Amino acid sequence: MKGKKHTEEQIAFALNQAEIGVSVGEICRKMGIAESTFYHWKKKFSGLGVTELRRLRPLEDENQKQGQLVADLSLDKIMLLPRHQIKALRPVQREHLVQHLQAGYRVSERRACQVLRVARSTFRYAPRRQQDEYVILKRMIEIAQTRVRYGYRRIHVLMQREGWQINHKRLYRLYQQAGLNLRMKRPRRRVSAAHRAARTDPMKVNQVWSMDFVSDALFNGKRFCTLTLLDVFSRECLAIHVDLSIRAERVVEIMRSVTQARGTPERIQVDNGSEFVSKALDLWAYEQHVTLDFSRPGRPQDNAHIESFNGSFRDECLNTHWFLSLEDAAEKIENWRVDYNEVRPHSALGNLAPGAFAAQSASTHRPSEIPS
Description:
rod-shaped
């Protein structure tokens, strides 16, 4: 029960009664207080009148409030001091910090949330798991096990094609929860590449091609090489030729075979390899009125489209298969090429497969968006 608060007149009257000879016990009985309270009054207010007491009481209350405020601020500083190096961005991390302050400093939930600037509604929020998450997680893991180098964006596109109505942020949360995050080591570019004259972007299919070599090895360490040919506009892989070695004459034969089925491009982007600077390829290009656009030495970014394709080719095909023979390598690589053209979503094409984008651009003749 809260104690009774006596007025300044009552305190002054009790002290005056003691001065005129009334016993302390009689004063305490009449006032309804303990003797310790009386002696506390005497020590604190002895010799003061009613007017002085009235002035002193508000000052004491104000000093008490100021002291409590300073104590609260000091405690807030102590609680925040170990946390200043922790950058808590997620609600789960903030919830752990609030619980730590409650357990370590014996403060209330309101006080801990106020110090950390966390909304109490966020702290008390209990997530509700939807019942279909297990099914979504199971299907996502199945796709990731089949296409081991696909990230959550491509998995999201494939699941949308299957009819799943799921938000990409929710899929990313489940993707992280399943531990499917990809670790991709990318080289750090320390020196900026020199600028070259800007190339004109292709406006249609079969206008600009790009080709390059990629090498790999069979299971026994025997090396083989592949010639990759790409349509820059549609990102369609036109051919991947596999052989132990590919000379300039063989490159010309491959180009003749592809152009018979696809037609002749206006320009082909290549690097400065010996097969591409050969007289045989130069003669074929002259006869077919094709421009060979060479990259600058040491500047693979000049032929960025084929370099990006080669990275995906190595990451999703070469690094995920064991090749028992040259025929086995040619078969597996051709299967991957068909899957790349017909199934694999491409972010630069609005998540369409290159084959579907090529068919769409052929029907419209003027695509609404030209990939960069």
